[in-house]
Amino acid sequence: MQDFSFHNPTKLLFGKGQVSSLKKEIPAYGKRVLLLYGGGSIKKSGLYDKVIGELKEIDANVVELGGVEPNPRLTTVNKGITLIRDNRLDFILAVGGGSVIDAAKAIAAGVPYDGDVWDIVTGKAKAPSNAVPIGTVITIAGTGSEMNGNSVITNWDTNTKAFFNSNHVLPRFSILDPALTATVPRDQTVYGSVDIMSHVFEQYFHASGNAPLQERIGEAILRTVIETAPKLVNDLRNYDYREVMLLNGTLALNGLTGMGVNPDWATHLIEHAVSAVHDIPHGGGIAIIAPHWMERVAAVRPEKVAQLGVRVFDLDPTGKTDAQLAAEAIRSLREFWASIGAPTKLSDYGVDDKAIELMTDRAMLADRIGNYVPLTREDVRTILRNSL
Ligand code: NZQ
Ligand code: ZN
Domains in the chain, please, with CATH? Predict the structure, then answer.
């Protein structure tokens, strides 16, 4: 294991009806609130009215910014920064999915920063420590953004999707009511399930030795998703399945399985590059790219892929080499994702080979990306080609 420090103070309020905690939680941070939300799902579901009701009870001054895009955009982040500065707001309430919460984090970090917030997102500048406090009401299981310091933002002027991580933008509290996720459509439910599994993979395929507990925790999350997702996609309003999936999403990317390990993240860098050029849903892109990435790394280091096959997909290792087990594991993963209806080819989203070089450029943040098996530019190009 590597030495590490771990600090995750996000308070989780989990369960049915927890939205009514807003009136208790928000006043500690101030009553001048930026209410941030997405394209309208919260209005259709009635959540918007409930949130406004809570804010009224504490006499909050509310400024709204709706329309945060899936794959949230820098232009929207800048709008939020301006609204907070102009109206002297002191708190951001993000109600929605990972996109809304990620936008909230970039806004929070950008307000006290004199320069361009894109400098923070791309890591050229550090997020200031006095970021605006954030609270969240999460409405879709997947990213884990409700309990981490990550924010992923797209700049359409340059076709770049970049991310930053800062403890200063960790949500102060997050409300996780599984009932609020009951309206998530089937495709987004599938993308969320895939995303959760890939967050485990990114940390499971690490470059550090001796992390058996972190790996076992990751395997437990993977097995729980594999057990739950097929039932959930056929029974979208089932509360029990929704609550299991919501907690899976939070624990897959709140630092728990990443303690003391040097994680990989190449699959995410490649997917972000695809989204930056083609604006496809994140989990859909991951479902397509991850098996091709796994094939590439299994060719060099099959042992961990073999372990995944035995421990998560219950493969019988008797008389098989790691390479054979790894190939079976990847087949099992593909079959599982196909069985819940995940996409398998980028061409399903209308992506062709025209932008392969641009996407490869965007993914290559360094000469090599990923840590379990560092990938060259040629590797990334091949993974993208194979994904078409
Ligand atoms: O915009 P609205 O109308 O709310 O609709 C959304 C959106 O169309 C809809 N939705 C969300 N909750 C719903 C619902 N529809 C009906 N009922 C509900 N209860 O679902 C669509 C997708 O929402 P989005 O927030 O984009 O999904 P997700 O949570 O998957 O977030 C994706 C973004 O997060 C980034 C991705 O790159 C992408 O930009 N990621 C963030 C991470 C993080 N912060 O740690 C890690 C991830 O790896 C990921 O990169
Ligand atoms: Zn992800």
Answer: 11-181 (3.40.50.1970), 186-387 (1.20.1090.10)
